Amino acid sequence: MSATGIGAAVRRKEDHRFITGKGQYTDDISRPGETRALFIRSPHAHAKIKRIDSAAASKMPGVVAILTGEQLAADKIGNLICGWMIHSKDGTPMKMAAHPAIASGKACYVGDPVALVVAETMAQAKDAAEKVVIDYEVLPAVVDPAQAKSGPQIHDVAAKNTIYEWSLGDARATDAAIRSAKHVTRLHLINNRLVPNAMEPRVAIGEYDSGSEHFTLWNTSQNPHVARLVIAAFVGMAPEHKLRVIAPDVGGGFGSKIFIYPEEVAVLWASKRTGRPVKWTSDRSEAFVADAHGRDHVTDAEMAFDAEGRIVALRAKTIANLGAYMSTFSSSVPTYLYATLLSGQYAIPNIYCEVDAVYTNTVPVDAYRGAGRPEATFVVERLVEVGARELGIDPAELRRRNFVKSFPHQTPVIMTYDAGDYNASLRKAMELADVKGFGKRKREAARHGKLRGLGYSTYIEACGIAPSQAVGSLGAGVGLWESAEVRVNPTGSVEILTGCHQHGQGHETTFAQVVADRLGIPIENISVVHGDTDKVQFGMGTYGSRSGAVGISAIVKALDKIEAKAKKVAAHMLEASETDIEFKDGKFTVAGTDKSASWGDVTLNAYIAHKFTGQELEPGLKEGAFYDPTNFTFPAGCHICEVEIDSETGQTKIVNWTAVDDFGTIINPMIVEGQVHGGVAQGVGQALLEHAVYDKDGQLVSGSFMDYTMPKAENLPPLQVATTVTKCPSNPLGLKGCGEAGAIAAPAAVINAITDAIGTEDVAMPATPQTVWAALQKANRMKQAAE
Amino acid sequence: MPTVSMTVNGKAVTADVEPRTLLVQFLRENLRLTGTHVGCDTSQCGACLVHVDGHARKSCTMFAWQAEGANVTTIEGVANGNTLHPMQEAFREHHALQCGYCTPGMIMAAIDMVNRKGNELDDHTIRQELDGNLCRCTGYHNIVKAIAAGARAMK
Prior knowledge:
The structure holds 2 protein chains of 2 kinds. By secondary structure, chain A is α+β, with helices and mostly antiparallel strands. Chain A has 4 domains: 33-139 and 200-251 and 257-290, Aldehyde Oxidoreductase, domain 3 (Alpha-Beta Complex); 141-192 and 292-402, Aldehyde Oxidoreductase, domain 4 (2-Layer Sandwich), CATH 3.30.365; 433-451 and 634-787, Aldehyde oxidase/xanthine dehydrogenase, molybdopterin binding domain (Aldehyde Oxidoreductase, domain 4, 2-Layer Sandwich), CATH 3.30.365; 481-627, 2-Layer Sandwich (Aldehyde Oxidoreductase, domain 4), CATH 3.30.365. In chain A, the strands form 7 sheets. Chain A has a 7-stranded mixed β-sheet with strand order 3-5-1-12-9-10-11, sandwiched between helices. In chain A, strands 7-15-14-13-8 form a 5-stranded mixed β-sheet. In chain A, a hairpin with a 5-residue loop joins strand 13 (297-305) and strand 14. In chain A, helix 14 (507-519) packs parallel to helix 15 and helix 17 (669-689) crosses helix 18. Chain B is α+β, with helices and mostly antiparallel strands. Chain B folds into 2 domains: 3-76, Roll (Ubiquitin-like (UB roll)), CATH 3.10.20.30; 86-153, [2Fe-2S]-binding domain (DNA polymerase, domain 1, Orthogonal Bundle). A 5-stranded mixed β-sheet of chain B has the order 2-1-5-3-4, covered by helices on one side. In chain B, helix 2 (86-93) packs antiparallel against helix 5 (141-153). The longest helix of chain B is centred in the last third of the chain and has 15 residues, at 103-117. Chain B is globular and about 45 Å long.
């Protein structure tokens, strides 16, 4: 391993600009002649928009335009779409309601944009917005997914607010297995609704050049090419080649910046109408009602065991809240990203899952870090933990007994697990967490009036999203390959153009490490270009822990071509046969001779083209590749959470966290550890702190950082992070992906630890002190009654 | 519009601004010092943290005119020419940043923390002192490590 190659903890190349305040985020961009946009949003969860009177507002100082949904429709700007088709059990397609960028006629959630004020300054836009009079007729609303089917109908296309009633697996076989099982564990689980809250609020700047009839959109996007495709092909704003999308430095995404949002469409449209650049910067409180939320599942689940504690069946019935409109990938999250992972790390012969997706008068719900897989893991890992307690079997032993041990392993829910050693990660985690010493620690805590608990989560996820043909057969509207272009300059420095997008993951470093390793050149001589549709031809973006397994694999494929071409150049230079040329550590040699050429010699010769004719070889050294994976990847591992609960207050303190993950080959262990830390923090946030709470009228009660509890440094313990390695067999470097693991594993580990400590399973997320205290009182009452 | 004058990163600046202009808006929009970020509108996140007369202040929570005559330091002003501040160096060395958005505020908070609490900071102190700074990427683990190391390096 070289100091900067694969496996080295290289310090990040991108950091210098961030630590010196020189990063360039979208809000840092200011266009000549720009105007500022402010969206007037519905204050009602469900209301007819009867009249918008902007006459007085239009006369306010600095106002450039006040635009409405009716004008948007008159200009024939198309609707936003959901790009993954799901069919119901009865074969009918999902009920996708029209989703205009600005509501027209009716608003369907608090935050739905109903008008757009464009003014010279933000202060002027705010002043003018105060003068816009909107006459609403408030309609009854529904916010609880469990009540959605009997609530007021939100969209004409969706009777009973039902988007689809979908299923996966063998209902009859699963039912039979459950009926004949020795023991069945049953749980009612709520996967709490979350607000992603990337620290950078979303921003969109639209600019129209009437001379060339060309649009530019600067936005906070995880996937600028997909944004361009949707805005061109579906919204119909401009042909694809007349729209450039630039997503510069992006301050965190976690899924929430995948989606194509109303504001992005609206600023482009407004820029054409006003002839000025139009910039919208979200406030944080606005983001709470404008960015897609995550999770929000209600599930009844059963796990059935035989007499030996082997899992014979799992059945889940889930209601998934998709909010007021179907966001870009919303339909896939509670279906193919969820039910396909219900086998966990276990060999379960029978699985059946039903998912009803519903509309409610809430912010649209879509992928958030883990997307479906945290929900699946929560179901599986809560069931197996409670099952162990009910059966009187040690929870680690019950897991071990049921682990998948031979690969490839076909689950009953589509996935073919390719490689793993689940026992290895469990064993290592148990050692690092000193599970053996837990009893002593528990007794010691009890002496101080504290309750200690220990919880496992042996999770699996499907990442490296994804083989195009496979996802196409499941309803995806796009392919999920990735592209790369390797541009070698005459002096030997290299630019990597990738369709992935970094917003914290450190691609500028890890991607360069792969190239430095392969070409034997200094990492300083490599730069990574991303996030601009004019520079990178096409790409699918970054989400689903795909940039390593898919994006880097595309780079490796392009590097194969670079090496092959460079060898041809070297053969001409060294007057040898191409088959005799060997390339190692940045040097080309002729086998069996002392003849050699350096990387820089060869790259220069590729461009000056003096040693070969254009008929023999094309000058230049630039290659591209599209890599389409052959399977998902399956990162897996074991997280162990140890908590201490104050029985007087219900306050939970995480005292130890141990994570042992198998991510396959690791390119930069420092970055991978950081990804685990961040994922765990979000998972702990979900388990202990975070909750998007709506009141019955559809007001988001926890709608700012004052009310929505973000994890702070004090809420988290130091994290012990380690790895085991089984290489992924389906991509060239054996990469699996690490971005989501922590968020997937953590919630079940926390709740398993809390319930272990207090002796009742009845603890909902977030397990706030109040929730835990109430559960404790209930457990104590039950204990007293039993005595 | 009233005129405000102050010293920012050692340079005297004067501008006419609307009275309601926040210090962070003045820094970002008038001076184009965009390293100071805005992550919330309720003074919770600390992305906008700068030093005003040597003390940590959330620049979203004061008007520009309230800094009249003050000495303001932003993230752009902490390095000594091309030599990074030890706290900047520590953040890079310990991988204390991912997306980088909270980072300027974190570094400014960390320097202030050392100024107030000294060069030997334990895990508990650092975590408590970070109450006013949110990070969504790192889980704080490496930020805490970086601040402890940066504090020692500032001796």
